[in-house]
Amino acid sequence: MNNELHFVRQLAREFRRPDWRRMLDEMSSTELSEWADFFRENSFSDALLDAEFSTLKAQVFMLVTGKEIDAADFSLLTLPGAVQNMTEQDLLEVAVGIPGGVRFEPESR
Length: 109
Hints:
Blueprint: H1 2-14, H2 20-25, H3 29-41, H4 45-65, H5 88-95
């Protein structure tokens, strides 16, 4: 469901429609599937611009330094699957650095 909602929101942004629900209401399911097929082949403009500029930055970096680097290192957009699930211990270690935080523990411990 999240992937479909993400696609619909990107589609609304591409069409400059602030209300994605109304956009869906005015669109047939056939039209939505045709747009999905189209954008599977052609990237959305924000992703395309990010890919173009990150590739350009990577090429300039390699030209100046002579070192190999991946264009994804210069990307401003994060991939939907790039978020890592943290364990409870990792979250506790991160939370140590937050000043003024109060930790609530379950009573079963």
